[in-house]
Amino acid sequence: MKSDRLLSILLLLQTRGRVPAHELADRLEVSVRTIYRDVEALSASGVPVYAERGRHGGIELLAGFRTDVTGLTADESRALFILAAQGAHAALGLDAALGSALRKVMAALPAPYRPAAEVTSRRILVDATRWKGGPQPAVDLDTLQDAVFADRRLRLRYRHSGAQEARTYTVDPYGLVSKAGIWYLVADRRGKPQLFRADRVRSATVLDDGVKRRPGVELADVWEVLRRQVEERPGGLDVTVRVRRDRLDMFLRLHASQLSELPDDDGEGEWVTARLSYGVVGQARQLLQFADHVEVLSPPEVRAELAAAAASVTDLYQRVGESGR
Q: CB of 245 within 8 A of CB of 295?
């Protein structure tokens, strides 16, 4: 919209001082001629803006002119620029809006705080994805967003983990949550809270029916309940192992989904310690595929399980060998 573009020009000039017309045109994705028309519109509305031609020319505000904005403290400005992690905005299609918002924030800052805010945006990066988690499938959040913001029910075709076929559900959404780079739909199904991974939604349809949420319950409330159910699920088993360094890359690729934290690797020594999480003791048997390149340090019941499994395999081959003599 033209009004948004005029405001962006004003804020850019207020932040940067003199700016060449072609640079404004590139930033705002319009022609140089459009920029000059916008400058004329700003001038006609009482903004003291003028253009100077020539090699060192550009568009500039009259010295001392500023829009009437409220100031932010230095810590507040840094916090806002750190908050602007790119992944979530890109997934929601809000990258352009984020850039525009940050320009406005930069213009609103008192002059002494601007350098610190710019340095923060270059020196601090928030990456919400896990190490060695593998590539995440593309997720289409448009329909889910539409339902969330329009307060409408959703009909989902959803495939659960391990299931061959998708199932159909009608749900009442509370909102969307990004957890370590993975998007979830938080919703009620038949009045009970439920979590749906967005990358497992095969199709979604916004219904005409208004959403039916439980009175007084907000997204943060439902998320807290569901988060605790996942993290405190009974049967969870923490396993500490050590891995030979020359097998570490393969180990991380094959066990990325079980890693509870990144291995503490100082780059020295033959062994690297890693921590895994399993649902039950028996699942840890998959560690046997690494033979003596992986050793379980704790808990004792997992060591005993693997020792018993290894002994069983040894006994089997000994019997096969004896029967073949």
A: no
